[in-house]
């Protein structure tokens, strides 16, 4: 059963805040590779930064996402990823215009349900690690939606609600309890 769940979507759309809430509730979370790389490169005066050497940055993001996947085997518990391998590959393919990985390499690496944080201009903030504007973030969101859909993942756009309600929503969507489906008539994502 695949219990590795990706929370992807628009930069600045509340993904990291949601992951923080899930961690607070005791779930294992994996921080966004890109943010970790940027923090590391800024501290070391490195150049693998999206605004300096995007190619090197994206290659490092792919490598780090692969390490994250190999270290996140927890068959009996949900593990939530703030972005992941497919996000990094999507960026690299967009940059180079060439396929980086085959569909079979990317499909089913994660739970079949992927949660997408939609563009949310009201909370979007640029900072030292997020220097791109909202229009660039929206374009990336659209590319990610297309790539995850093309790979066969079921996309679930997160509602624009409080972080507590968002976490409840994600956990409800992953709940495999048959009785709840019948009572509420909700189409739920089951573990693989």
From TrEMBL:
Keywords: Plasmid
One Pfam family of this chain: AAA_28
Source superkingdom: Bacteria
Protein name: ATPase
Originating organism: Paraburkholderia caribensis
Domain NadR/Ttd14 AAA: 4-166
Gene3D superfamilies xref list: P-loop containing nucleotide triphosphate hydrolases
């Amino acid at each position: 059963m695949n219990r590795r769940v990706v929370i992807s979507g628009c930069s600045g759309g509340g993904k990291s805040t949601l992951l923080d809430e899930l961690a607070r509730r005791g779930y294992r979370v994996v921080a966004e590779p890109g943010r970790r790389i940027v923090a590391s490169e800024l501290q070391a005066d490195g150049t693998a930064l999206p605004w300096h050497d995007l190619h090197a940055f994206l290659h490092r993001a792919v490598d780090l996402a692969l390490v994250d996947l190999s270290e996140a085997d927890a068959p009996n518990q949900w593990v939530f990823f703030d972005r992941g391998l497919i996000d990094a590959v999507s960026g690299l393919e967009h940059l180079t215009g060439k396929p980086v990985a085959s569909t079979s390499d990317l499909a089913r690496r994660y739970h079949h349900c992927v949660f997408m944080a939609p563009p949310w201009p009201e909370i979007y903030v640029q900072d030292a690690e997020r220097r791109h504007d909202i229009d660039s973030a929206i374009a990336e969101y659209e590319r990610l939606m297309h790539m995850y859909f093309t790979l066969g993942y079921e996309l679930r756009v997160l509602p624009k609600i409080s972080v507590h309600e968002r976490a409840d929503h994600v956990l409800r969507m992953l709940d495999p309890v048959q009785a709840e489906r019948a009572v509420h008539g909700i189409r739920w994502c089951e573990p693989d």
